[in-house]
Amino acid sequence: MGVKTLPPEVLVKRIREIQAQIRQIVLSHIAEQTTEALSSVAAETEGDTIYAVDRVSEEGLIALFETLAQETAFVLIGEGLSESGQVFPEGADPDGVPYRIIVDPMDGTRGFMYDKRSAWILTGVAHNRGANTSLQDIFVAVQTEIPTSKQFRSDVLWAIRDRGYGVEGYNRLNGKPMPVVLKPSTATTIEHGFAMISRFFPGGKDLLAKVEEDLVEKLIGPVVPGKARLFEDQYICSGGQFYELMAGHDRFNADLRPLLESALIKRGQSLGICCHPYDVCTALIAEEMGVKVTNAQAERLNAPLNTTHPVAWVAYANKTLQKNMEPLLQEVLRQYGWV
Asked: What digits encode the pLDDT tens for the residues 58-82?
């Protein structure tokens, strides 16, 4: 007898319930903590620095997913677990379970722990293909906002591959759901909009900025004296960056950090932290909303479903922007020898 599978709608419901509980755990905890306590370093892993507030979001993670294991079986992948993931229920054959679930219980820690910007709980459910399972096997994705202290609304987004998406707000003041409408930008140019290349941390920021400058000049021409015709917003959170595209706030964003490595080595520098598969495990939602997401080579975004693989991604708010921008971005990247 095979392991029971669940309809995608049920998986969405269960993941939403788990994420809502993680959100409540975090919000209850931070109300009693200082910024210094939340931002203290708890651990260093191969994938990232773990701060004290990360530990809060990880608390109870296993117990929460054990509730899902009462209905089906899966391998859970995330930081703090073994590289091969943890199988649920205990003792199940990891190659025989129907799903691999990748989770980031708090994406956007750095901004959130200083109460600057929301963090996001990210989860992608993939059909299990063992070690060959990749981002493209994700067929259900859910992300839940962990809002800052002054926000009353927390947004929740989800998608089922080829079957569309859903969005709902959660009112923290009364605990009730509320309608939310999100729509990616339909603009055909980045001019007078938000568009940028991610460069959050020291190490190669000058190279990323030069690529951005070259691309922008090709797209909208040189700087006009006394004018600002393009804006940027460095949201240190991949889930948050996708949200900004889905909400119509941003028109273009790209995280190209993995492409820096050879250039940095030549300068005697090391490549710092990069985006990982768990950071982009909810890209499916953006895609179902019409955002165009690719890798740096203008191909489908894909990567092994693990916690360490470096991921470079490019996202355009709509198909027309992709058509107008992608050839020029590829031209610039080729000039730098990055693709």
From this structure: 667 888 999 999 999 999 999 878 7
Where b means 16+ CB within 10 Å and e means fewer, 200-209 reads beebbeebbe
Q: What is the length of the chain?
A: 339
Secondary structure class of 120 (helix, strand, coil) = strand
**Cβ count near 71 (within 10 Å):** 12
- Model pLDDT for residues 183-240, shown as the tens digit of each residue: 999 999 999 999 999 999 999 999 999 999 999 999 999 999 999 999 999 999 999 9
Angle of helix 319-335 versus helix 205-220 axis, rounded to 10:
130
Query: How far out from the chain centre does Cα 332 lie?
Result: 25
Helix pair angle (61-68, 8-30), 10° resolution? 160
Angle 51-54-58 from CA coordinates, rounded to 5°: 145
Torsion of the alpha carbons at 242, 244, 246 and 249, rounded to the nearest 10: -150
Cβ within 8 Å of residue 181, ≥6 positions away: 167
pTM beyond 0.85: yes
